[in-house]
Amino acid sequence: MRVVICRIHLKLRDIEFRATFDGVYDYAVRILCTYKRTSIRAYYRLKLLLFPGAKTTWSEKIEFIKMKSYRPIPVYRVLDRQGNVINPAEDPKLPEDIVIKMYKSMSLLNNVDKILYESQRQGRISFYMTNYGEEASHIGSAAALNNEDIIYGQYREVGVLIWRGFTLQQLVDQCYGNKDDIGKGRQMPVHYGSKELNFITISSPLSTQMPQAVGSAYTLKNTNQVVVCYFGEGAASEGDAHAAFNFAATLDCPVVLFCRNNGYAISTPIKEQYKGDGIAARGPSYGIHTLRVDGNDVFAVYNATKLAKEYAIKENKPLEIIPHQMIVLPTDLPSEIKQWTTNDYPVMKLRYYIEKRGLWDEDKEKEWMKKSRNDILNAFNAGEKKLKPKWTEMFNDVYKDIPSNILKQQDYMNKHAPYNKYYYSDLGSNPDTG
Ligand SMILES: Cc1ncc(C[n+]2csc(CCOP(=O)(O)OP(=O)(O)O)c2C)c(N)n1
Ligand SMILES: [Mg+2]
Fold first, then answer.
1. Where is the signal peptide (predicted)?
2. 322 alpha carbon to ligand 2 midpoint, in Å?
């Protein structure tokens, strides 16, 4: 016993508060509990504080805990800026077809953005959210999961759907809200959803997906499935985020809380959103294991998500991943962001890697770019021409029992529709008028 306590004491002296304290403390308490007679004396010697909810030591020196008291959580990466694997032990050694699928999905995503963003600016669709700069976060995480894992997204995760097999036509049809849109035109553009692909339909109010994701993870305890909940660092300021973190931790839910930290909540920069060491630092304070990852590095995101999933399933516990990535906003970029768009652009990083592995070259690039643009344009042209859903759809599938105020509106519509048969035909409405 003496030897053990001595060892603990030594460890406690050069403790790294966040990294090792929990483990040492638990170890000490476990040992002390089994040796009741020595316990009181030992507590004093170790200065351990036993109180429900507290895992710490006593101190007789008054002292603030400041940002400087902690080492910031480091960012895990696999690739350097030239696409070289830095530590061979961390290379996920993915087969050629998977790496090429990753690259194609990431660059496709980028082309989808260019066309749909332009179309929104031209007024052809009412709304759009780009994914530029976040390609590695989507594809790296999606590749580490399987289609049975349930996704709760925010709105900027369409790469996950593309990876799972959502077609370009389904994507464009959703943005146009036409008659083939799965959501039958009842949602804003980019509010995708697919029951078949286990992707819960996006809802506009930020963070509502977070407690919902934790709740559905609760039902998946002791299965081989996990829930992955994507959210932005801006969304993490909502009260719902706290509810989600705390329930995930206290109820031991197999959920991966995936915070895409891109430095902005639309136009609100980080410095106006939070102080401290980011969202990652919140994880341990809720009792959630946390990884901070380079969101521009698809292999780092892949490894982190894979590990998180394994942990969540094995331990039935939540895990938090925080990839940091750049995002390009339409306004002038501050220099600290601009440098990321050139040096660390995720698609380029992966391209350097596949070129070095001899899997890609300029000819393949040109051929793929041409094909992917054509595929998107074909889907886009077809989607734009399709009729809008019949107006009656707006009253379906939302309420089991339609409330009286909505019934009243439905009645108005029933009376109004016959006055404009072209606009409200039985087939659906015409895109240029509807
Ligand atoms: C409850 C709520 N408040 C405000 C908004 C408006 N809004 C939409 S996106 C957004 C910024 C979200 O930022 P972040 O979570 O960082 O996601 P990002 O856009 O950077 O991916 C805001 C404030 C909203 N949709 N819901
Ligand atoms: Mg953000």
1. none
2. 12
Q: Which atom of ligand 1 is nearest to the CA of 206?
A: 26
What is residue 75's three-state secondary structure? coil
Contact 292, 75 (CB under 8 A): yes
Report the distance separating Cα 87 and Cα 246, nearest Å.
35
CA atoms within 13 A on the CB side of 130: 19
CA of 236 to the centre of ligand 2 (A): 9
Kindly give the number of the ligand 1 atom that is closest to the alpha carbon of 129: 19
Ligand 1 within 6 A of CB of 329? no
Is the minimum distance from the CB of 235 to ligand 1 under 6 angstroms? Answer: yes
Q: What share of the chain is helix, strand, coil (3-state, %, to 5)?
A: 50, 10, 40
User: 114-173: per-residue pLDDT in tens?
Assistant: 999 999 999 999 999 999 999 999 999 999 999 999 999 999 999 999 999 999 999 999
Ligand (nearest to CA of 205): 1
| 336 CB neighbour count, 10 Å cutoff | 9
In angstroms, the CA 354 to CA 99 distance is: 8
Pairing of strands 150-152, 227-232: parallel
* Cα–Cα distance measured from residue 323 to residue 304, given in angstroms and rounded to the nearest whole number: 9
For the chain, the first-to-last Cα distance in angstroms comes to: 80
Ligand 1 neighbour 76 (Cβ under 6 A): no
Residue 328, CA distances (Å) to 125, 335, 337 in order: 20, 12, 8
What's the pTM value of the predicted model, to 2 decimals? 0.87
The answer, yes or no, to whether any atom of ligand 1 lies below 6 A from the CB of 232, is yes
Cα of 273 to ligand 2 centre, how many Å? 10
Cβ(261) – ligand 1 distance below 6 Å: no
